[in-house]
Amino acid sequence: MVFNITIGVSQFAMPGVAQAFGNNCADQSRIELAFATIDKHAAILELMGMVMKDVGDMPWDERSFLWHGHTFDFPNIRGFAAILFINPIYVEGLEEPKWRSFAGGRVNTLWMVPINEAELSFLRQHGIEELIKQCPAPKLMHIFSGMPQFLPHTFSPNFVRIN
Question: How many other C-beta atoms are found inside a 10 Å radius of the C-beta of residue 58?
Fold first, then answer.
């Protein structure tokens, strides 16, 4: 496995978190982004590194925040439609870097997981908890393998080409 992980996004608390979590939101306001893949798809790391830089700026550019279950459209990996953020605090046994607390709160890892159109539709209809229940290997859901992680039966040929 190979990883891309941001360092430093968590220096600043994301705007908009208090509106969603209330004023006691120190444990939700700081994130680092992460992407993992198997060696076979290591070429995608360069693309994802550039994406992570842009996504890391989104909370401040858009005056919002990123969190578990949020998505953004991303058709740049053939066969996939979006990137889903997964926070390991909501998935028992999902690995994450060990961060020290910062400014009195937890630093959260948000794994960036490519999802296909069927998974995105399922997520919109049923929510993040139900999508996670569909994952046959929850402890490995953050590792890009070129296959859908949550609804593997939605696989189609010609996957994993960077557009």
Answer: 15
Domain tally, the chain? 1
Q: Tell me how many degrees the CA angle 74-76-79 measures, rounded to the nearest 5.
A: 90
Q: Which domain holds residue 73?
A: 2-153
Cα–Cα distances in angstroms (integers) from residue 84 to residues 26, 53, 66, 74, 100, in the given order: 23, 16, 10, 10, 24
Q: Is 156 exposed, middle or buried (0-12, 13-18, 19+ CB in 10 A)?
A: exposed
pTM of the predicted model as reported, rounded to 2 decimal places: 0.92
Does residue 163 sit within a domain? no
CA proximity to 132, closest of 90, 73, 75: 90
- Asked, for residue 74, whether it belongs to a domain, the answer is yes
Residues 57-109: pLDDT tens digits?
999 999 999 999 999 999 999 899 999 999 999 999 999 999 999 998 999 99
Cα 84 to its chain centre, rounded Å, is 5
Closest CA to 49 of 98, 95, 7: 7
Q: What is the pLDDT of residues 26-53, one digit of tens each?
A: 999 999 999 999 999 999 999 999 999 9
